[in-house]
Write a structure and sequence with these properties.
With 125 residues, the protein is an alpha+beta fold. The chain has two helices and eight strands, in the order βαββββαβββ. InterPro entries: Glyas_Fos-R_dOase_dom, VOC_core.
């Protein structure tokens, strides 16, 4: 099983308390920009920032997961999500969500790790 990238997911508030996440997203983009990360994806509820020189060095900022029951702590992109899902199910680990084909082009599932953290395991279509 091949891992393509591992991305921490940082939960953010709405920034100004109005329910609009754009202020929080802008603040995070500005802060992580100081560390050399550029915005590479923004869907309003999730934004990914990456290193221009090492594009798999990433961090995602999330207000809440749009379709999952919880906001995952970490995302792991794998080559074959279905093979990983089968291995995780055989292990007896708790599946929290999925597998699901999401409208933004990923197939994914959530699993709880031994520490209680929720891991978003995904492949791009």
């Amino acid at each position: 099983m091949s891992v393509r990238r591992v991305v921490p997911n940082i939960v953010t508030g709405t920034g100004d308390g109005t329910g609009d996440a754009s202020a929080a997203m802008r603040a995070n983009a500005a802060f992580y920009g100081l560390l050399g990360l550029d915005e590479v994806m923004n869907q309003g509820w999730i934004m990914t920032l990456a290193s221009p020189s090492h594009p798999t060095a990433q961090v995602s900022i999330m207000t809440a997961d749009r379709t999952g029951p919880v906001t995952p702590d970490l995302s792991v992109e794998v080559e074959d999500v279905d093979a990983v899902y089968a291995a995780v199910v055989r292990s007896g680990a708790e599946i929290v969500y999925g597998p699901a084909d999401e409208e933004w082009g990923v197939r994914r599932f959530f699993v709880r790790d031994p520490n209680g953290r929720v891991i978003n395991v995904l492949s791009h279509g």
